[in-house]
Every structure is written in structure tokens, then in C-alpha cells.
Amino acid sequence: MKLFKYLSIIIIYFTIFNECFAQVKKDSLRVLFVGNSYTFISNMPHLVSLISESTNVKLVTFKSTAGGATLSDHWNGKKGLKSKNAISNGKYDIVVIQGHSMETIEKKDEFLKYSKKLCDLAKASGAKPYLYVTWARQKVPQYQEVITETYKQASIQNDCELIMVGEAWKLARELRPDIPLFMLDGTHQSDLGAFLTALMFVGNFSGEIPEKCPAGYEIVDTNGEQVILFWENDLDVVFCQKIASEVIKSTKYKTVTN
Which residue among 3, 16, 93, 160 has its CA within the 20 to 30 Å range from the CA of 206? Predict the structure, then answer.
């Protein structure tokens, strides 16, 4: 009788342990970002990974970037880029493709040509390509419509999905014209702009925006010292969470359903 009692306790213990383990165990996705400064400034890919720790999917991020790079630069290996090799051999689940901020406006045909080449290469490697819709520069917000429409055209051409970052920035600026998403140059992302951008990737790839994000994220450097990666006002953080959630819900664009 005692033996049966002990066995019952052990069975219950392992059942609870397995259930708890299943709850904390996370899926993970390897994500490669192919782009330029609109990707790497403010350590945006690293921020994506840190935010994803509060979701059920851990995003392990990598990047192949160079300042001012166009999609043709990535394809042709200019600016020291090795993006084709990274895509082909990195065993990524997702490849994010981001063109130059003016490429869709000034070199549309070239953008469409090389977005197809890169998307095809990603698919051939077993990864799912996504196109990263960038934002219009601060002084020319009217360009957003052209940027978004060109990315939509590429999405149809490549049968892939879009991450509507530019649309999130547009909505944020409409609701709060003073929100500091830009650096002083009026084109690149501030830390807050990078945070809103990162939320868009986390929300699309994990299927959720964390209910509560901390106002700051810290990492440990190679010397074991704490480094602040991101630190902003609580209200701005909550605002960005709401913007990302709204835009993902209302503008998620999937070519297979359009």
C-alpha cells in the first residue's frame, strides 16, 4: 500500500514537472536581416531578440548589412557584403529583406528585380522571405504611399509577406506628430524608432506583442559589464506597443489571400 502511495506521488510529481517544462519550453526561429542602416542602427535585430524573450517564440537574429546598401549591392557582393552566401548557408527560418530608403522611389525596377532574386534564393535555402517596408523620411511623409505600394507589388511578385514598419511609423506620427522616432538627420531611426520597428517584427514572427515591455533592455558585454541597449519613457513604450498591435491587425498583407 505504501509502495503504491509513493509511486502515485512520483507519477504526480513527474506529470507536474513535464507540464511546467512544456509551458516554459519555447520554439525558436533563426532570422537573418539583409539590409542597411535602417536595420542595424540602434541594434534593432538584437532588440528583436530581446523582446521576443517575453513571447512563446525566441527569435535568434543575425544580420548582413552595410550603410547605404541597395538590394543589388547585396546580390552583387558590393560594400563587402556576403549576403548571398549567408542566405544560402546559414540555415535560417526567416530572411528579412530591406531595400535602400529611396530605392522604391528612384530605382523601382531595380528594386523589383533584386527583391525577386533574393526572395528566390531565400526560398531555395528553405527560409521564408519577408519584405521590410521602410518609412518615409521625415520631411517627405507623402512618399510613404509610394514606398508601401512598391513593396506590395514586390510581395505579389514574390509570393511573400510584408512587415509594415513604414505604416506603423505613419500611424504613430499621425497620432503623435512630436514622437521622436527619427534621429536628428530626419531619416534614420532613433532608439524609440528602432523599438517600434522591432515590435513589428516580433509581433509578426511570434504572433504576439508582449503585454508588458520593460522601459529598458540591458546586455552583458564581453567584459561581463552591463550595457544599456535601450531605455525610454514608459508611456512611449506603451504607445509603441499599441501602434504595433493595431497595424499588424489592420494592415497585415499576405499575397496568397489577395
Answer: 16
